[in-house]
Every structure is written in C-alpha cells, then in structure tokens.
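Section 3.1: Structural characterization of target chains.
Under the original work plan, the team committed to producing a structural model for every single-chain target entering the pipeline before any wet-lab resources were allocated. The record below documents one such target. The sequence was received from the expression subgroup and is listed exactly as submitted; it comprises 58 residues.
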Amino acid sequence: MNEIEVKQREFFERQLEQINRELQELEEEIDCDLDHELGEVNVFAKGTNIHKRIHRDE
C-alpha cells in the first residue's frame, strides 16, 4: 500500500467509526422513543374498542 492508500484507509476507518457511533446513538434513541410511544398507545387504547379488541384477540 502506498502512502495515499494508507491515508485513505485511515480516513475511511475514522468515518466508519463515527457512523457506527451515531448509529448506536440513534438505535438507543429509537428504542427509548418506541417504548415511550407504545406506553402512550396502550394508555390511549384503554377504554376504547381497540383495547377491547386487543384483549379479545389474546
């Protein structure tokens, strides 16, 4: 590998590490948001036909 290839590889490895960190943060954020949203949907659905249908299907 010549010097340019080494520098390109190092650059892309750093970019990949940054992307992976950002992806991990987004996945954690989505998990939290989804848990929160599902909790709200469950509370909202109680007392409605949706809630009754869900429990009838179980």
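DSSP finds two helices and no strands in the chain.
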